[in-house]
Amino acid sequence: MRGSAGESERWMEASDVIPMFPTLVWKVQLEAKLRDALDTRILAVLQKMRRDLPALAAGRGWQSEATLHQREEFGDLVACVGHAAKSILRFLRVGHDAIEISGCWATVLAKGAMHKAHSHPNNYLTPSTFVIPGIRRASSGRRWWSSRPRTPIRSWSK
């Protein structure tokens, strides 16, 4: 824009999102104080849930029940998910009356374990949060993606 558009001059005619890939991805980064408080609370709940269980062996994982969103300790996280989901749906121009969280669970992984890629075909959005104790994250945040893989068009004949 050398010489043609100063700071006060308009230089862009339009901007839009072009869905060139099968899905759009949102990264929602929470304010640091809120993020740290949520991380602390989530870790405390998970440690309490696992306190009577044996330590995870290297390469192993554990998954909680799928109703964490109903627990009082997760209320602030649920509120953040709701606000972000409404914002995303507004951006996508998807009308909605209510947002329902159909499940919320935690996966705890020991060193060497990995969470396999998977999909949630009955959900429109899938939020995911990463709590990594003892690690200061330069770009920590919550990641969102469409949970429904593209379904090929099929022809059914009798």
Describe this structure in a few short sentences:
The chain has 158 residues and is α+β, with helices and mostly antiparallel strands.
Low-confidence stretches: 135-147, 150-158
Give the overall shape.
Answer: elongated
Q: What separation lies between the terminal Cα atoms?
A: 61 Å
N to C succession of SSEs: EHEHEEE
Helical percentage: 10-25%
- Count of DSSP helices? 2
Mean pLDDT: 75
CA gyration radius, whole angstroms = 20 Å
Strand order of the largest sheet: 1-5-4
What does this structure look like?
Helices cover 23% and strands 11% of the residues. It is α+β, with helices and mostly antiparallel strands and 158 residues long. The strands form 2 sheets. The protein has a 3-stranded antiparallel β-sheet, covered by helices on one side. It has a two-stranded antiparallel ribbon with strand order 2-3. The chain starts with 24 loop residues before the first strand and ends in a 13-residue tail after the last strand. It has a domain at 25-109 and 122-134 and 141-145. Residues 135-147 and 150-158 have low confidence and may be disordered.
Keywords:
158 residues, alpha+beta, 3-stranded antiparallel sheet, 2 helices, 11% strand, elongated, disordered C terminus
List the topology elements.
Blueprint: E1 25-28, H1 32-50, E2 61-63, H2 75-91, E3 107-109, E4 126-129, E5 142-145
